[in-house]
Amino acid sequence: MKHWAALVICTLGALLLIYPGCQFLKAKSASSSNPAVSSEPLTGNWAMTRVSMEPPLPSVIPGFVVDQIFPKSATWSIGASGGQLNIKYGGKAIWFNSMGIDVAAKPVTASEASDKKSCTFSGGGDIHEDTLPGVLSMVGAAAGNPQNISIGYTDKVVVTLTSSGQMNATITYSASGTYKNNKGPGNIDNASTLTYTGTRK
Fold it and tell me: In the predicted model, is pLDDT for residue 25 greater than 60?
């Protein structure tokens, strides 16, 4: 029970949230007539589709909740400013839906490959919640009503250009922390990998 309870908290609560204070700029729209003109081939708007999640979440977590947190499809926008790439996910600075959970996030750093065909965006943060908010509280009820949730997490998004109009992305995250529920204190130690494919818009 504790195993998937931790996954619920971790997945629905942790590793995800808006990075306040990170200076993300709106990405330039890619020219549909000549996308290869840019000196930064990754920049532009990308229609992304989730391909896999490993390990999969326990079946006790409703699929509609999973799909709200980890969107099956979204438009990612990659821009460049001051020689640095930046990324937004569906207009947000995070790749998942926070579902009302607040996060103290660390700045995101971008590390672009010398051939400019791939880039790694690394971030992380801390979460402290007395209880799970909104719809997550209903899911949390099945996990013993977790409270006093304290989580630290890191995440990494690697985007790789496979052609001028195609891109692959891998998201890895890990989280650890503590919580209490009806059975007493519990520990969180979770990691997962999601993969996406994208087409230039």
Answer: no
